[in-house]
Amino acid sequence: MSLYRRTGRQVPTDPFIDLLFNTLLGFSFLFLVSLVFINPEADKAKVDMQAEYVISATWQPDVADDVDLWVHAPSGDTVSYLKAEAGFLHLDRDDRGKINDTINVDGREVVHSINQEIVTIRKRYAGEYIVNLYYYQAASSPPLNVQVKVDQINPRFQTVFAETVELKAQDAEVTAVRFSIAEDGTVSGFNKLPLKLTPYGLDHIPVDVWNR
């Protein structure tokens, strides 16, 4: 009897087929890994909230008065409802009184009666900033009190300025505060030296601007 067992005949494999199979296996693995990191629904919910400073103007919620926030940066950029993004400044909320207080949620109208404009400074840029209020529309009886705040977000949250400003009549423009940001992010030099930021009076507004 032979010491060796007789085995079945082995069919030689093609190296090219092995290469194709391994390549396909590699692509399948990479595809599965990519699915783990890609979530379209989560991407839709992402909001860039980066901000170094937040400037807000808030007035009583039960009136239809329209107040505009104008902010001028040392870079020469000025942000307002006419230009919502200018350099590293961004108008995050343009409040028009009661006009944009109603939103639709699941087919139902929900009233969010806050009157507030918000401008964010998204880069720490040294120099002087000027914050003006413009009384666009006086739906109630003036004067109107508006609280202006400047909040520093980084490296820790703190309110560096908060004061109530009185707007006495429609078309009034008031410099609420001027302040300076240093290279290290500290805020100082608060004053109210007036400077007009709007390019017109209410009677000079172009017709198309009224339909904003």
Task: Describe it.
The chain has 212 residues and is an alpha+beta fold. The protein has a domain at 53-198: Lipoxygenase-1. 15% of the residues lie in helices and 39% in strands. β4 (85-86) and β5 (89-93) form a beta hairpin. The longest helix has 23 residues, at 15-37. It starts with 14 loop residues before the first helix and ends with a helix.
Which key terms come to mind for this protein?
alpha+beta, Lipoxygenase-1, five-stranded antiparallel β-sheet, 3 helices, disordered C terminus
Quick overview:
The chain has 212 residues and is an alpha+beta fold. It contains 3 helices and 13 strands; from the N terminus they run ααβββββββββββββα. The strands form 3 sheets. Strands 4-5-8-1-10-11 form a 6-stranded antiparallel sheet, with no helix packed on it. The protein has a 5-stranded antiparallel sheet with strand order 3-2-9-12-13, with no helix packed on it.
